[in-house]
Amino acid sequence: MGVSYTHWQAQIFVPRVSLSSLRTLCLVLVMALVAVAACPKNCHCSERNGVVVQCVSRNLDKIPSNLPEDTVVLLLSSNRIKHIPKQAFKDLRRLRELDLSRNAIESVDAGAFQGLAEGLRSLDLSNNQLRSVPKDTFSKLEARVSLSHNPWHCECSLQEMLRDMRLDPETVNQVNCHTSVQEEYAGRPIIQILDSGINFCNFHHRTTDVAMFVTMFGWFAMVIAYIIYYVRHNQEDARRHMEYLKSLPSTSQISKDYDTASTVL
Hints:
By secondary structure, this protein is α/β, with parallel strands linked by helices. Helix content is 38%, strand content 13%. It has helices at 5-11, 19-37, 156-163, 190-195, 200-247, 251-264; strands spanning 44-47, 51-54, 71-75, 83-84, 97-99, 107-108, 122-124, 144-146, 152-154, 166-167, 177-180. The chain has a seven-stranded mixed sheet, with helices on one face. Strands 4-6 form a two-stranded parallel sheet. Strand 1 and strand 2 (51-54) form a beta hairpin. Helix 3 packs antiparallel against helix 5. The longest helix has 48 residues, at 200-247.
């Protein structure tokens, strides 16, 4: 028995898509294509309510310069980056997560994270070569910052920097003093040292006071040495002058010689 065309038509389900849904789908596809097209060389980009840029283990030696402005996650771990320049991420105002762990970062310029203050939620600088950074580097960030496994030098500026930032609580006890202004604190977690009441800024002031005292003592010693030299030099001149005066004929002798000359005349 044959089946009519009308019967087959009734069996076919054709989904209805609204115009607004179609526009949204097209917009998402366009944004994904733009993100892929703007992706830095040797990196992989994907769309996830913004662009996720994945540059892990790509042998990079600097921060990519052509990052998409709508980047929300930037993964740069396990590369060879040594330096973070000023305003390296200034155009990434939507950035929420920044991973710079496991590089060779030795220095961070003041203002390196300028522009990320409000949106950034996570910043990972662990497993690098940082000994110190400018005091205000993290002062305006709301992000949780991981600084573990770096060769930190514990002194006043590091203490002041930690006071103005939010350390990642999961790694806070792994921020150790590799070296310190006081040798006995080397190898210990800096938070534990500060919690025990130690103030590295006091050591700094004491060192400054000692340096000023040594400088003042040096100047004082120079002044004393000059005075002694001046007095001895003047004494020698005075002695020579007295000897000269003694060698001159006396007034009485001159008078006698004058009287004798008058009598002869």
